[in-house]
Specification:
The complex is a heterodimer. Chain A has helices at residues 26-34, 59-62, 116-129, and strands at residues 6-11, 14-20, 38-44, 49-54, 78-81, 88-95, 98-99, 102-103, 107-114, 132-138. Chain A is an alpha+beta fold. Chain A has a single domain, classed as Cyclophilin, CATH 2.40.100. In chain A, the strands form two sheets. An eight-stranded antiparallel β-barrel of chain A has the order 1-2-9-5-6-4-3-10. A two-stranded antiparallel ribbon of chain A has the order 7-8. In chain A, a hairpin with a 2-residue loop joins β7 (98-99) and β8 (102-103). The longest helix of chain A is centred in the C-terminal third of the chain and has 14 residues, at 116-129. Chain B is of the alpha+beta class. Chain B has a single domain (4-140), classed as Cyclophilin (Beta Barrel). Helices cover 16% and strands 47% of the residues of chain B. Chain B contains two helices and twelve strands. Chain B has helices at 29-38, 119-131, and strands at residues 4-10, 16-23, 41-47, 52-58, 72-73, 75-76, 80-84, 89-98, 100-101, 104-105, 108-115, 134-140. An eight-stranded antiparallel barrel of chain B has the order 1-2-11-7-8-4-3-12. Chain B has a two-stranded antiparallel sheet with strand order 9-10. The longest helix of chain B has 13 residues, at 119-131.
Chain lengths: 141, 143
């Protein structure tokens, strides 16, 4: 451990690079790393603003119930996890984690490090085109 | 008797579903009059990002930040149509929804309510979340 662990994010025709937020959310980031590769569909959020989400089907993430670094605001290019692993969101603009009942907390698990502008543009396009296929894998694997 | 409007959503494959809405002109006379003058409305329907289970269109002719709210609501019931004059926005709720923005909770004028069996129409509104933009046409109901 100790070395930076990186991810390859493929959203439709966009390929970006990200790194784990192990310094902020060590348990959640570790569970996310252990859940890779992920192949799913990313869907525009309904309550949280300029963000999209997917529901990871991961026992490891489901077991993370602690908010290690509680945040409401989701910064563009950041991936955040809802405790219990029920959903992961990534933002492309102003975003706050919300439900119909109000604001809630999430914890950051990864941040985009390369090709952020293109990733944000692809995420923003989802407001017009709807869901898109998403793949996340460990870099080098 | 209040006037009716016909709403039709057409998807990318050319399939159209329609519904009828009753205009609430007694409760919101200024907003409904503005709405009726803007008909027919043909705009891209998208899913809301902050407001929950609803789709919306932005109608440039309806933008009027000075127009006072009437028949004010924040929470939408299924089938309610809300008008936000500051944006020229018409939102149609297919489930639990609220007038919201990035800065918090807002208000809308409830100008109309869908009538009859609107399930297929509201399913098409819901479909904008995963299926993307569709065309919404609103016309005065004739007859």
């Amino acid at each position: 451990m100790g070395s930076r662990r990186e991810l390859i994010v493929e959203l439709d025709d966009c390929i970006a690079r990200a790194e784990l937020c192990s310094e902020l959310s060590p348990k959640a980031a570790e569970a996310f790393w252990g859940s890779l590769p992920i192949e799913t569909v990313l869907v525009p959020a309904k309550w949280s603003g300029r963000a999209c989400f997917f529901e990871p089907d991961s026992r490891a993430l489901a077991e993370v119930t602690e908010l290690e670094y509680p945040v409401c605001s989701i910064y563009p290019g950041y991936f955040v996890l809802r405790p219990g692993g029920t959903e992961i969101l990534v933002a492309y603009g102003a975003s706050e984690y919300r439900w119909g009942s109000g604001t809630d907390y999430v914890t950051p698990i990864a941040r985009t490090t390369e090709n952020l502008t293109r990733l944000i543009a692809t995420l923003a396009r989802m407001h017009d085109v709807g869901e898109l296929p998403l793949k996340i894998r460990a870099a080098g694997r | 008797m209040s006037a009716l409007a016909r709403l039709a959503i057409t998807d990318g494959a050319g399939r159209t579903v329609a519904a009828t809405a009753r205009l609430l002109d007694l409760a919101a006379p200024l907003a409904v009059e503005r709405f009726r003058r803007a008909l027919p409305i043909r705009e891209p329907l998208r899913h809301v990002r902050w407001s929950g289970e609803a789709g919306y269109v932005l109608v440039p002719e309806l933008v009027d930040p000075g127009l006072a709210l009437e028949n004010r609501m924040s929470f939408f019931c299924r089938g309610a149509i809300g008008f936000r004059p500051e944006h020229g926005e018409l939102a149609i709720a297919y489930g639990s929804a609220q007038a919201r923005d990035w800065w918090g909770i807002g208000w809308a004028t409830r100008i109309a309510q869908l009538e009859g069996d609107a399930d297929a129409f509201l399913a098409a509104v819901e479909g904008t979340q995963r299926g993307g933009v569709r065309e919404l046409l609103i016309e005065a109901e004739v007859g």
